[in-house]
Write a structure and sequence with these properties.
Largest sheet: 5 strands, mixed
Strand order of the largest sheet: 8-7-6-11-13
Strand content: 15-25%
Structural class: alpha/beta
CATH architecture of the largest domain: 3-Layer(aba) Sandwich
Number of helices: 12
CATH topology of the largest domain: Rossmann fold
Length: 343
């Protein structure tokens, strides 16, 4: 996301609030005059003469602290991110920075799938409840060391055979090529490369609905699961909320609690979600594997009505995202007013 788009969206929200609530619009024009840089552009960030700099990190979060920590320490940074973290207790060592939270993946995914001007609008996205041949499906993206360790641990410890595990486009359990699009080209998997160039349509924009409809549960491996102290939501989970498929999520501690804080329902009335509170990553993984193994004895038919009720609730909650937008932009206004008084 470009910073200009954020300010355009903010002014759209500002117009709506001013028109319908007669509120006085805040002045944030001064902030648009500040220099801004992509978060990895360390050389130009440090060469910039301004004492206040905007950092575009809309698709990332505090897991990018290795970059942040290379910035000059004598300046003030306004970091726009998709992440929520405690600025007093994090890996970021900058003495003077402010995190502006913007739910990039949530808003972009909903825009992708509900706007008739976007290609995914015309694709099937609805999960169908009923009998399934597989207990769970899991699609894990590009290869990374911690994901490879996870996949090896999963395949060694899942006690049944009727599940689908696709990692970087390769099956590690039951075959599923017949259910999925062929995303691997020249033995390379890239979730963000265009599969339809004209519409900038990528793997991350797609929902493999035939694949998902083959299983009772989507086991989601989020971007952050071996990091601590932050809440980072991506399209991986959002697409299950949108489609209605039940899910188990491997992420950082209290990830599910964060979803519930946004008004979504998870599955703590149907199975044990205490894994969400476990701080140790390996113990959290083991608790999830124990849960996945228990699905072999779960009465899916008896619980189908409640599963559908959760799916319907979450679909309706997507229609209430204006409330989140209100909070995001009000928090931004408060920060802008605070900084303007200081600068």
């Amino acid at each position: 996301m470009e910073l200009a788009q954020f300010f355009t969206d903010y002014k759209t929200w500002q117009t709506a609030i001013s028109f319908y609530s007669n509120e006085t619009a805040a002045d944030i024009d001064w902030m648009q005059q500040l220099p801004s840089f992509w978060y990895t552009d360390v050389e130009n960030i440090n060469a910039c003469a301004s004492n206040v700099i905007i950092i575009n990190c809309f698709t990332e979060g505090v897991h990018s602290a290795d970059c942040f920590n290379l910035y000059n320490k004598d300046k003030t940074y306004i970091i726009f991110t998709n992440d929520i973290w405690d600025t007093k207790q994090s890996a970021c060592s900058l003495p003077n920075y402010h995190n502006v939270y913007y739910p990039t993946f949530l808003f972009d995914t909903v825009d992708n799938w509900f706007s008739s001007h976007r290609l995914p609008f015309y694709l099937d996205k609805l999960y169908e409840f009923g009998d399934k041949p597989m207990l769970f499906v899991s699609t894990i993206g590009s290869k990374k060391n911690h994901r490879t360790v996870l996949v090896d641990h999963l395949t060694e410890n899942i006690k049944y055979k009727n599940y689908i595990l696709r990692y970087a486009g390769k099956d590690f359990a039951q075959p599923s090529n017949h259910l999925d699009l062929h995303y691997v080209v020249n033995n390379k998997f890239d979730a963000y490369s265009n599969i339809i160039d004209e519409h900038f349509h990528t793997i991350s924009d797609s929902i493999p609905i035939d694949l998902w409809n083959s299983a009772y549960v989507n086991f989601i491996v989020e971007t952050d699961f071996d990091f601590s102290g932050n809440w980072f939501l991506t399209e991986k989970t959002i697409k299950s909320l949108l489609s209605g498929q039940p899910f188990v999520v491997l992420s950082n501690t209290w990830f599910l609690r964060g979803l519930r804080a946004l008004g979504f329902r998870t599955y703590n009335t149907l199975w044990d979600e205490n894994y969400d509170a476990i701080g140790n990553t390996q113990q959290r993984i083991d608790a999830i594997i124990y849960l996945l193994n228990s699905f072999d004895h779960f009465d899916w038919q008896a619980k189908q009505h409640e599963l559908e009720s959760i799916a319907n609730h979450n679909a309706r909650n997507l229609l209430r995202l204006n409330n989140l937008g209100n909070k995001v932009f009000r928090d931004f206004e408060n920060l802008a007013n605070q900084l303007r008084a200081q600068i």
